Predict the 3D structure of the following.
Amino acid sequence: MPENFEFLPGSQETEIMNFISEFHSGNLPFLFQTSGSTGKPKKIIFTKDQLIVSAKNTIAYFQLHENQTFYLCLDVQTVAAKMMIVRAIISGARLICGPVKKEIQLPPQRSIDFVALVPIQLQHLLTQNLHISTQTIFLLGGAPLSQKIINLILTKEIQCYQSFGMTETLSHVALRKITKHTMPYSGMEGITFTSQQGKLIIHYPALSQNPIRTTDEIELIDERNFYWKGRQDFAINSGGVKLHPFSIEDKILENLGLQTLIFGQPDEFLGEKVVMLVIGNIDVRLKKSNFSFLSPYEIPKLYQCIPRFHYLRNEKIDRINTKLASKENEWRALL
């Protein structure tokens, strides 16, 4: 066992040790699989050198070093978890490996300097009213941050960075610190951005000879900075107005406390109409007046209540399978 690795009860010790063994065995190819959030998962191969390039970028950005302690609580099958392991190996930092669960708790009486989380884990951590060091760096990814979580971060005055990246980029290519003011994403060292028809193109020569084209809709500030709007895969065109479900879902959560999934359905007059799945009791009755904080185009035309959403391995909502779980005969119009 590596001296700088510590395994807590319930951690993925066998899987982590297998990955460490593979990493040290030579420059063998590493096979990763995309999450499948926008379609069928696909396999991508990277080399050990490429993993090291990505790890060194993060180490340099956050000035990570061997006298620090990292904490791992992500599924080791994800890129995010594997890159935490590589960062610990390259930097020499101590890595404490904990159980993978939404109800995260940082190890008591231990000083954690760096931890990668998905938003639902951070939300649980912040709502437990536990003491959290302002020195700990929280790296967030996997899903957009709701305004509710952002407010919790600002209240606790902790260091949180939202990451932008994907399996194809071996973790993040851009970061933004969560502050009172909405900040753009800024590219890591050696990474630049362009856009075509409003969609982000990533230029990462150390990782790929070809530009990495995405379906992320952005507002490009310059070659190093951009604002993220949403995924083209999920955008709704209703009456000629482009709507981004993540933004609508966030507003509903912030104002009504409802966890929702917004998507479009074909409509004879609008092209697409906004519909909504809500986690809740099947007898819940919603009114149009409840959604006065939305624009007229954003207000759902139909909704239905379902007991739960489906999730991917990386804790993103599985939007495809959650939509498939809906039943046409249960749709209701807002009163």
